[in-house]
């Protein structure tokens, strides 16, 4: 069993007298900055000048500055910009200002694990990775609940890297829900695999394939949308609340029987073999190299796939139907980053 930590294991004194610099005020960054500030931690924020996120941070009453200035002033630096921006930003603005006594933190291990960022030996390097989008990290903190997180230490120059990370987790609110110990390797590889095979890639393709199968067979696109996409949230909520068993308890016996007898025909041996290949590509660094090269070459393939996905029939139908669902919070158009 992985080691777990709770509120009794965190001590804010490990952040006392230290300045935490949140590098990036996006989805995760705004939650980290505000939660730590509300927990009594001295927080500064790095953002690009004259951007919406700079203005939001200022409006929240936070001190905002360029990355180089934040790196110089901060004792603990939490890097929360997108993975593909981290290495360049680190090299240009942060690395020249790292030195003994500093702590470098991440919420995802990609750039450390795959060697895109190589910190000096005299600094602590750790991770606090909340298992929720930033808005939920903030929302549940304000409700006094918190979200679970992972903690990892890559480099312990001070001998106090774990204590600092747990103090950060306490201020963020995660120790209320529990923090599980891991490694940068385990977090990075399991995270990438989960996104690709299940949470994003696998789930998206399963939804789209089900929708297209029904539409090709002559069923109305609106009916296919409800059956293969809209109702998925109801099922996932049940699974999150009580596991697969609670979901099966909650649905009809007909649905449960179909689950047992037809599910393994969809996720069959061939699917499982493909999952193993995907995991191997993650472990070997093949996916990381591919993604790094895609960004270096201008993201042409990525942006083309994003644009094509926006115009898939299931997306077109969904946009029309969601306009009728007044109970849904309206989201920005797909492809526009959410805060």
Descriptive notes:
Helices cover 55% and strands 12% of the residues. A 9-stranded mixed beta sheet has the order 1-9-8-7-6-5-2-3-4, with helices on both faces. Helix 1 runs parallel beside helix 6 and helix 8 runs parallel beside helix 9. It is globular, with a radius of gyration of 22 Å.
In short:
55% of the residues lie in helices and 12% in strands. By secondary structure, the chain is of the alpha/beta class.
Number of strands: 9
The residue ranges in which pLDDT falls below 50 over 5 or more consecutive positions are 333-339
Shape: globular
- Report, as a whole number of angstroms, the end-to-end distance: 35 Å
Category from helices, strands and their pairing: alpha/beta
User: Within the largest sheet, what's the order of strands?
Assistant: 1-9-8-7-6-5-2-3-4
Q: For the residues shown, what is the average pLDDT? A: 95
Discrete helix count:
16
Tell me what portion of residues adopts beta-strand conformation: 5-15%
Order of helices and strands: EEHEHEHEHEHEHEHEHHHHHHHHH
Largest pleated sheet: 9 strands, mixed
| Fraction of helical residues | 55-70%
The value of Rg in angstroms is 22 Å
- Quaternary state reads single chain
